[in-house]
Amino acid sequence: MPEVNADRAFARALEHHRAGRLADAEHGYRSILARQPEHADALHLLGVIALQTGNLEPALSLIQRAVALRPDAAVCRSNLGQVLERLGRDDEAARCYEAAIALDDRFAEAYNNLGYLHARKDRLAEAEPLYRKAIELDPRYAEPHTNRGNLLKDRGELDAAIACYRRAIELRPDLSELHSNLLLALHYHPGYSPADLAREHREWADRHVRPLAAARRPHTNRPEPDRRLRVGYVSPDFREHPVARFILPLFREHDRRRIEVFAYSDVGSPDPITGLVREHTDHWRDVASLTDEQVADAVRADGIDILVDLAAHSGRNRLLVFARKPAPVQATYLAYCSTTGVDAIDYRVTDPFLDPPGEAGNYTETSLYLPRCYWCYSAPPIPVRDRPAPSRRPGPPTFGCLNNFAKVSDATLDLWTRLLRRVPEARLLVYARAEPHRGRVRRALREAGVDERRADFVERQSLVDYLETYREIDVALDPYPYGGGTTTCDALWMGVPIVSLAGRTAVSRAGSTLLHNIGLPRLVARSEEEYVERAADLIRDAAGLAALRRELRGRIESSPVMDAPRFARDFEAMLRTAWRAWCERRA
């Protein structure tokens, strides 16, 4: 191929690539390489396509060849780092990013990538300056704004995080995942009402869902109300993740005479839990390398009757699959009990405590009520012989919170400092995996006149060590306004009562549904003062607390929260109700 023709062919392939036409771009790059096997740019970008589609080993080989041909190309080094990072080779990835910066100290993307790697490894003090440098070098580069927003959100600095997300959205209004980051973060902030959340979700949908409405096509599913249903579940979290822990009991207990289970797994790096989830499905579809349109086509080809989203606006969600309406009935469940804003999702799952009568919230979906509990919890996935006893270790009276630190809002810290002033003999134990998180707690205590030495911290732990930590806690404190789910269940199973404040949003009433279902509604507060009083009274009643701790594991094990067969029947009845409504509309 003459050089001028190769240049034209490469320009055409690159145009396809930038427009998202990956198949056309791949064909173009391969045509060039068939004639010029050492065309470094074609090798590099063919490797980038392999990375984009989840084919990591080919991506590694192709980009390594490009680096060998172009050792001075910073972009090749940076993209090689991304492949190595996806393969779990973090130290090598870091060296690639550092080499890219050494080659081009104004290469914003390499600073951002290195910052992201540090943040993922909990080296947050190293990550933030790298994000700032990337922004300084390229103020219109959206990703470091959203990554810095994630970092700030994780340490509870919500106003600053939300400002970062809004800036990222201004820069890249076309990227729905950046906009989803904002929506998730708003739920952590006590200043956003249900009406505010509904408005923000509608704005997301106007931007990202409305343009896809034309892609919706009629469904050919047989409108027979009582036949066996083909139910699909879509999630990036069929792995070691709370979603997998809560969905496994349902998958195990689904009545296969009535329900045929399809799982659309967007897991990039499967683990043993992925295999366990897969064992309890009838059909497994790996969709990590597929576009939203391709996933929607796969759902249609499978003839799914009811498609269930398990991610909402959390990371790697596939809401734009649902926007295309590939199944006649669509619902959202589990990731967070709010709204998606997607008009093509017909239903959201809830229960009478998350959405009490008269407090149904502002949702684009119709609420489908489970009669008892939103969650179905199973004991932690460790051998019975290794399960910690729920007995209390000796030590001073201790309040504790092992939730994701992003939930420790300023409102939460205010409640905790008031509580420590009320109970001066008590200590506070908090999961805070990095020094900036801990510094924020210490600062709040100092400003409230509480000795900061009364706070202790734990970092990221193994599952067994995390459960053992509950033996150091007398009373768990639910954060506000985004309460715990998995952590609340784990605390109760480990014999630790939890005090929760029920607020205006469903996510603030997670503790309410769990405590009501185990027969402890008295631990649900309706005001800030009540939250402080109930926690203080509970920890000061040593005899009553000891008696309650002894019975808690039995309470949760015998409650609807851990009754998987009954939960599955309730869930199936709810799905059947939604299906029959669709059949009636088709009649």
Architecture overview:
This protein is an alpha/beta fold. It has helices spanning 3-18, 22-35, 40-52, 56-69, 74-86, 90-103, 108-120, 124-137, 142-154, 158-171, 176-186, 194-208, 242-253, 272-279, 292-301, 319-322, 410-422, 435-447, 463-469, 486-493, 510-517, 528-540, 542-557, 564-586; strands at 229-235, 259-265, 283-286, 306-309, 329-332, 347-350, 366-369, 398-401, 427-431, 455-458, 475-477, 498-501, 524-525. Helix 7 packs parallel to helix 9. The model has no long low-confidence stretch (mean pLDDT 95).
The overall pLDDT, averaged over residues, is 95
Q: Total number of β-strand segments?
A: 13
Share in helix: 40-55%
Rg? 25 Å
The third-level CATH topology of the largest domain is: Rossmann fold
Helix-strand blueprint:
Elements: H1 3-18, H2 22-35, H3 40-52, H4 56-69, H5 74-86, H6 90-103, H7 108-120, H8 124-137, H9 142-154, H10 158-171, H11 176-186, H12 194-208, E1 229-235, H13 242-253, E2 259-265, H14 272-279, E3 283-286, H15 292-301, E4 306-309, H16 319-322, E5 329-332, E6 347-350, E7 366-369, E8 398-401, H17 410-422, E9 427-431, H18 435-447, E10 455-458, H19 463-469, E11 475-477, H20 486-493, E12 498-501, H21 510-517, E13 524-525, H22 528-540, H23 542-557, H24 564-586
Parallel strand pairs: 1-2, 1-4, 2-3, 4-5, 5-6, 6-7, 8-9, 8-11, 9-10, 11-12, 12-13
Summarize this structure briefly.
It contains 24 helices and 13 strands. It has 587 residues and is α/β, with parallel strands linked by helices. The strands form two sheets. It has a seven-stranded parallel beta sheet with strand order 3-2-1-4-5-6-7, with helices on one face.
